[in-house]
Amino acid sequence: MRAILRQWRFNSLHKGAMLQEIDLTGIYVAPFALYMVMAGIIFVPLRFYFDRIEIQRWFWHRALFDMAAFVIILSLVGLVF
Length: 81
What we know:
2 strands, mainly alpha, two-stranded antiparallel sheet, 3 helices, single chain
């Protein structure tokens, strides 16, 4: 938790710095696209775990729950990186 707060303070001090595109063999990719890939890598095993514990019993609409969980993971990845 302290590391996250330290990173947040560092980012808040350097708000003037803009995100840079990432060069993948000559193709420029927005950092947000890589954040989405990282969130997807985290979300897929988590979704299998949700299937195993049958989480749909507790939620009315499973797709909305999955989307909300992905958005939460994506925002945490964006906060950390």
